[in-house]
Amino acid sequence: MCQLRHLEYSFQWGDESDPPSRITSAIDTPSRILKMDISLNELSSLEHEAFIPLQNLRDLNASLNKITKFIGIEVLKKLYSLNLSHNSISRIENLVQSTSLVELNLSMNELEDISYMPSMMNLQVLNLNNNKIKSLDGIQALPQLRELYAQRNDVIEVIPLTSCFHLQIVNLSNNKIQSLHSTVGVLGQLKRLDVLSLHGNPIERDRSYQTDILKETNVKTLDNISVRPLPKPTVSVEHDPGASRHIQNINALKDAARQAFEERMKESRAKMEENINFMQRRILSLQNEYNDYEEKLKNDLDACLRYLDNLSATESAGVQRDHVRDSIGTPHPKVWQGRKSRHHDHQAKTDYSSIRDTERLLQFASKELSREGT
C-alpha cells in the first residue's frame, strides 16, 4: 500500500525512435507503458503532467482513491479502459478527448447528474452502480453502448435508453422505476437486448411484470433467471404417445434444472458482490486506521522531543534510551507524560476550600507562588 497523494511522472525528454543498445525498463521509455494500476492510494486528482509521457497508455485503474477531478485523462488519446470506481467524483467531465475509450467504470462515487456526459462514440461498457443518479439523461451521447450497469441508484424512468439501439445488457436493479408500461415500451425498441435486471424496483410488484416484459422484448435472461429455454428437439411421436410424455417430462426436468442453476448463480453472485464490497470498505477502514496511528506517532514524537529539549544535564542522565524508544506509539507510561501528571498530582494534594481567614489564605498563596518559581 503506497498511499500516494500526488502523481507525477519524472523523466527526461529524449528521442525514443532510436532505442538504446542496453535493455531498458518501461520506466525508462514511458511510451511503452500500456497498463497502469494506481488504485488503493490517496490521490485527490489526476493532472495533465502525470500522464503526458504516457502517450500509449491503454488501461488505467485509479480506483479506491479520493479523486474528485480527473482533468489529466484527456491527454490519453489511446485510452481503452478507465476504472475510477470508489472515489469521490460528483461530475463527469474532461472525457471529450477520450474518443478511444471503450470501457468506463464510475461506480461507487457521488454522481447525481450525468446529463453532461460527453459524446464518446466508441464507449461500449459503462458502469455507474452505487451512485445517487436520478435520471439517465445524457446516456444518449453513447450511441455504441452495449452494456449498462446502473444498479443501486435513484433512477425513476428509462426513457433516455430509447436511442441506445445496441444495448445487450442492462442492469437497473434496486432503483425507483415505477411505470411498467413506459419501461416495457422503451425496452421493446431495443431489439438486441438479451440480459435485463430490474429486480428491486417498484415495478417488480406488478402482477404482469414478467409477462409484459417477455411479451414486448427479446430478453433471454430476466433478473438473473433464464426465461427463454432453448428450442426443444423435434421428434416424431405419432405412433408412440408414451414417448411424447417421456420427452415432455425430460424437458420439464431440464427447465427445472436450468432455473435452479440460475437461482443458485444469482445467490452466489449476490454474496460475492457483498463480500467484495465488505473487503473494499475494510481496506478503506484500514487506511483510516493507519492514518490515525501515524498521527498519534507524530504527536508522541513531538511531545517527546519537547520534553527532551527541556531536560537538564542531570535529568537527561537518568532517562533510559530504551524506555524512550519503547514509549513511542504504545500505551506504556511515558516519561514526558509522567512529569506532567506528577506535577498535577502534587498541586492537588493541598485543599484550601475550608480556609476562611484572609490572612492565612494570603500566606498559603505566597508559598504556592514561591514553589512554582523553583
UniProtKB/TrEMBL annotation:
Coiled coil, from the record: 262-303
Record has Ribosomal protein as a keyword: no
Keyword Cytoplasm carried by entry: no
Start and end residues of each stretch annotated as Disordered: 318-353
Stretches with biased composition (Basic residues): 337-346
Record key words, sorted: Cell projection, Cilium, Coiled coil, Leucine-rich repeat, Repeat
Pfam families, per the entry: LRR_4
Subcellular location as annotated: Cell projection, Cilium
Protein name, as recorded: Uncharacterized protein
Species of provenance: Magallana gigas
